[in-house]
Amino acid sequence: MLSKAWKNVLFGLLLCSLSSAHSHHDHEHEDIPIERRQELLAKWEQEFTFTGISTFAHLPHVKCLLDPSVTYDIAIIGAPFDNAVSYRPGARFGPRAIRAASARQMPATSYNTRAAINPYLNWAKIIDCGDIPITPFDNAVAERQMYEAFLELGSRKVHNPAAGRGGISQGKPKLITLGGDHSIALPALRALYKIYGKPITVLHFDAHLDTWNPVRYNAYWASAQARFNHGSVFHVASQEGLISNTSSAHAGLRTRLTGVDDGDYTNPGPEQGFLRIHADDIDDVGVKGVVETIVNRVGIDEDEPVYLSLDIDVLDPSIAPGTGTPEPGGWTTRELIRILRGVEGLNIVGADIVEVSPAYDSNAEGTALAAAQMVFEIITSMVKMGAKGDVGGWYGRKEGDVEKEQEVAEGKKDEL
Ligand SMILES: *[C@@H]1O[C@H](CO)[C@@H](O)[C@H](O)[C@H]1NC(C)=O
């Protein structure tokens, strides 16, 4: 059951959405007594996981781009664009698939045990801003549309200015973008660079480097527009000075390189601004080792903004086949979830989850489900880090846990 306080919050949200959706009819609502509204809410507000119009985690949907008065602390935004892929298309349907697969997450039933919070019922106002209507006909225009949309949404006032983590992101909303192919990260980074006024640290989960110099695709036909593609995102971003060369990291790599040597790895240039963690490394150092390597590289500093860019192809295609550029030998869903949980302390100011291409997924929606779960974990960490005080959870021990762990270690107890 929801607490009374939360019912009031939800009721407030409902009133807001009614009034913003129908502000031109406001006079029609004036005579409706509050008791009647409360009765309807009591009767019909509680949904089932399989009911309702598809929004991310049943969150309220607002067309944020159309209404500058809409505020939020965290917003989901879809970027259904896949005109910049090098292999399979279809990621324009990613936002729809991820939203549909997120249906088992409802705000009222999403307590996250590892974090000891329900991210949807905590301090943050989280909404689904819908999709950016991106043209499929002109990539130069698409690039600009995305930049303008990310800048618009990322520059809004937050809903709870006093809440949040503190540091450089205080008072700034956080966007989580559902892709779309990976090219969408370039306009997102341009917008973040503008908003934060400094290079952004990129934590990049992917089978591929995505730092390819665009001439490596086809030097003869290289063009200014061809630079905007899903494999050159971080090359271009680095050349534009948008990303930090000293704290960014790739994780989950297992790509083949171009040419006859390892030049993609060793040539000097913007490609080298990343620390590389390979998919195989997990066998040697374990999840914990991967987490430590990331945290040591990226650093936990509330004044250094981090963008988390998650290409679903970091997972093995046996688990997540519904993607544009599959590479065998990837991580499992469980491993990736644990890595995300392990890096919860990073100062993530924005994130994307890209390259979900549902046409190649199975009927069981495994790829989209994995993506929806990753978004849940990222939102959880954003909310948890902004919650004042230590809320505990699996990775932030609660009072008494240390003693219990000691007893387990001494064999006095079987488990925690
Ligand atoms: C990172 O390195 C590239 C290539 O040397 C350079 O163009 C870019 O400006 C650097 N970025 C920053 C933020 O220093």
TrEMBL record:
Keyword RNA-binding annotated: no
Composition skew (Basic and acidic residues), residue ranges: 396-416
One of the GO biological process terms: urea metabolic process
Pfam families: Arginase (PF00491)
EC numbers on record: 3.5.3.11
Catalytic activity of the protein: agmatine + H2O = urea + putrescine
Top EC class, one word: hydrolase
PROSITE patterns, per the entry: ARGINASE_1, ARGINASE_2
Keywords noted in UniProt: Hydrolase, Manganese, Metal-binding, Signal
InterPro entries linked: Ureohydrolase (IPR006035), Ureohydrolase_dom_sf (IPR023696), Ureohydrolase_Mn_BS (IPR020855)
Stretch list, region Disordered: 394-416
UniProt: Mn(2+) binding residues: 182, 206, 208, 210, 311, 313
A GO MF label: metal ion binding
Cofactors required: Mn(2+)
Residues making up the signal peptide according to the UniProt record: 1-21
Cofactor note: Binds 2 manganese ions per subunit.
Similarity section: Belongs to the arginase family. Agmatinase subfamily.
Protein's name in the database: agmatinase
Naturally occurring in which organism (per UniProt): Polytolypa hystricis (strain UAMH7299)
Organism lineage: Eukaryota, Fungi, Dikarya, Ascomycota, Pezizomycotina
